Amino acid sequence: MSSLVILTLIGLFLSLRGYQAFKSQGFHFITGVDWVAAQDGSGEKNVFGLGAMIIGTLVISATALVVGVPLSVLTALFLTFYAPERFKKFLISVVDLMASFPSILYGLWGFFVLMPMAEYWAKLIHKYLGWIPIFDVPQPAYTRSPFIAGIVLAIMIIPIVTSVSREIFAQTPLDRIQAAYALGATRWAMIKAVVLPFGASGVVGGAMLGLGRALGETVAVYSVLNIVFKVNFQVLYGFGGNIASMIVQKWGEASLSEGKALLAAGFVLFIMTLLVNMGANYIVRRTVKTGR
Amino acid sequence: MTTTYVPTVSPTRPWKKTPAQLIPTVVILILALLLDVSVVAVTPMKGKLAYALLFFLFSVGMQFIYAWVKRGRPAAMDSLAGAVTMTGGMIVFLPVLSILVTVLVKGLPGLGLHTFTQTMEKTSYSDPLSSGGLLHAIVGTLYLIVIATAIALPLSILTALYLTEIKGRAAGFIQFLVQAMSGVPSVVAGVFIYAAILLTTNLRGSTFIGALPLAILMIPTVTRTAQEVLLLVPAELREAGLALGATQWRTVATIVVPAARSGLITAVILGVARIAGETAPLLFTLGTTDKVNLNPFTGGQNALPYYIWSGLRDGTEGGVARAWTAILVLLILVLSLFTTARIFGNRKAKR
Question: Rounded to an integer, what distance in angstroms lies between the CA atom of residue B339 and that of residue B262?
Fold first, then answer.
């Protein structure tokens, strides 16, 4: 009962508070790409367009998915079919442990340990794949790029995606597995013919749950990313942003009207994650029920 | 007397590889290592990345060819897929190791008795690490945990009971809401409390208000775990209670809940572990202080994640070093909660 009340309240309050921002900006609030806050009472006009941050959020989350999902699927397969029985339990609890690390720890680690390494990888990618537009870098600025933030997020979503995929893989009917082996299939042939078709939609659901987490991540992104309010599709280039970290960054010196716009931004983020999570839960639940 | 000869047979494992079958694998690995070193020495490629990548390519490639020649295409594909899966699985565990080692190495120098007995009241970031401590932040975190649990626990256990025991008409809808709620980003919870309370009333940030968004984040975790635990209670117990003439309420209160007690404790611990390290919502709701504040309703409060955040934002050497120490303490807290939950969970599974 309580959850109903709280969820409705969250939606209600944020939309109420953000309504003024919506009203003054109209659709520009979603599609616009600039954010200029005027002083209260100075007579200048506020321009709030969240577009750049929405794009930034999507770019970072997409990077996280591209890096994280294949690794998670491999890990889930490894844990279910390859890992020696003795270590299996231990390895599974290590993955669960990864999920319980605070996000600020990932941020700190990403900034001090991962960044130097990832910068080097970014340079390599730019050197050999720079002809692809998204890997282009106009100036040699590789630090604090969306690419690095994406890797940190990838590491953060790996435990969720892995454990959802692993649970689905483990539900593969044993008779089908044994039938495949009896027909002389190798382990890989069995996985390809039986496990992957069976678990595919579960993996999609897990990936979407991961996406939901990646969209709303604040502290880790804030510590790693160089937040600049501009559209940036070039993942290796050293600036970007996402909605959640932008709210935190602008909060401190926000005027009253800008604060309301930030609340509206929170509302947009809330709706985005809600939609993604609903989709994910629908897919996962359908898979678990029908086994298809 | 005839003696019967009983041969002692040790169980054989015919699928296990004999040493002779292992030789090609070992030879391939050694060859790959040699090739790896020589190629790195000759070509301009340098660094750990080149070593690892080339070793992977060589060993996997040679095993692929060997399997193809010996046993044909399916076997070759199998060895390739096996190698890729193993490597993928291993790569995922590297960050965990790296994180744990980094936290220990960077956090230990600042750790001492003073960490738990002093506050930052008279110490600034530029002072040596041996003065000042985390007492105020630890007290704050404990306060937050206690208050958030006090709010979230009754709500989530009752929701879980409603979903598993009463199964009312709204159960499906509420189940859906709980799942939607577990996806609420923490920053949104913080902004919501700010908009709902701090903007509409003239209250200032305090421990109690800081605990509210944490409770919002805790409810779905506890509800879902509690629900799973309650479903494990055998239906016979409920039926026995009802057959003895107890009302549903009495059955639940005196039979179902005690039977699921250790599982419910696990649920709470997991919930606490979920919120102990939350930073984003506290930035909007906590206010701040450098002293121990024992009053949860007035005055700012500090907390371990908040302390780490300010150290990191400060950016100076001292601030960052203190942040690492604080994160070591926070990690120990989270890890011990996690382990306790595991032990409780295992004990329940055994019975």
Answer: 14
DSSP calls for B142-170: HHHHHHHHHHHHHHHHHHHHIIIII--TT
B74-118 pLDDT, tens per residue? Answer: 888 888 888 888 888 888 888 888 888 998 888 888 787 777 777
Could you report how far apart the first and last alpha carbons of chain A are, in Å? 32
Cα torsion B279, B282, B284, B288: sign: negative
Terminal-to-terminal C-alpha distance of chain B: 50
Across the interface, do A274 and B102 touch by the CB < 8 Å criterion?
no
Residue A10 and residue B192 in contact, taking contact as beta carbons nearer than 8 Å: yes
Residue A242: its pLDDT value, please?
81
Count contacts between A and B (CB, < 8 Å). 229
Query: Quick one: B154 exposed, middle or buried, by C-beta within 10 A (0-12, 13-18, 19+)?
Result: exposed
**For the purposes of burial, counting CB atoms within 10 Å of the CB of A44, is it exposed (0-12), middle (13-18) or buried (19 or more)?**
exposed
Shortest CB distance from B174 goes to which of A3, A81, A83?
A: A3
- % chain A with pLDDT above 90: 6
ipTM of this complex prediction, to 2 decimal places: 0.81
Q: Which residues make Cβ contacts (< 8 Å) with residue A58, sequence separation at least 6?
A: none
Q: CA gyration radius for chain A?
A: 22
Smallest CA–CA distance from B269 into chain A, residue: A100
Output the DSSP codes for B240-268. HHHHTT--HHHHIIIIIHHHTHHHHHHHH
Tell me what pLDDT residue A72 has. Answer: 92
* Beta-bridge mates of residue A117: none
B351 has a pLDDT exceeding 50: no
CB B209 within 8 A of CB B199: no
pLDDT single digits (tens) A153-167: 999 999 889 988 888
Residues found in chain A: 292
A45 DSSP 8-state letter: P
Q: Which residue type sits at A6?
A: I
Q: Give me the mean pLDDT over the A15-31 stretch.
A: 65
pLDDT tens-digit map of A204-248: 888 888 888 888 888 888 888 877 777 777 777 777 778 888 888
B257 CA to chain A: closest CA distance, Å?
19
Q: Which residue has the higher pLDDT, B217 or A226?
A: B217
Per-residue pLDDT at A49: 74
- Domains of chain B, each with CATH number or no CATH: 20-109 (no CATH), 135-350 (1.10.3720.10)
Q: Superfamily assignment of A52-249+269-290 in CATH? A: MetI-like (1.10.3720.10)
User: Is residue B93 within 8 angstroms of chain A, CB to CB?
Assistant: yes
Alpha helices in chain B (DSSP H): 19-42, 47-71, 73-107, 113-117, 135-161, 171-181, 186-193, 207-232, 235-243, 248-251, 257-259, 261-276, 280-285, 304-314, 317-350
List chain B residues with CB under 8 Å of A254. none
What's the rounded Cα separation, in Å, for the pair A70 and A52? 28
Distance of CA B210 to the CA centre of its chain: 22
**Among A79, A148, A98, A146, which residue's Cα sits nearest to residue B88?**
A79
- CA–CA distances in Å: residue B128 to residues A242, B119, B125, B323, B326: 36, 14, 8, 14, 15
Percentage above 90 pLDDT, chain B: 1
| C-alpha to C-alpha distance for B59 and B28, rounded to whole angstroms | 6
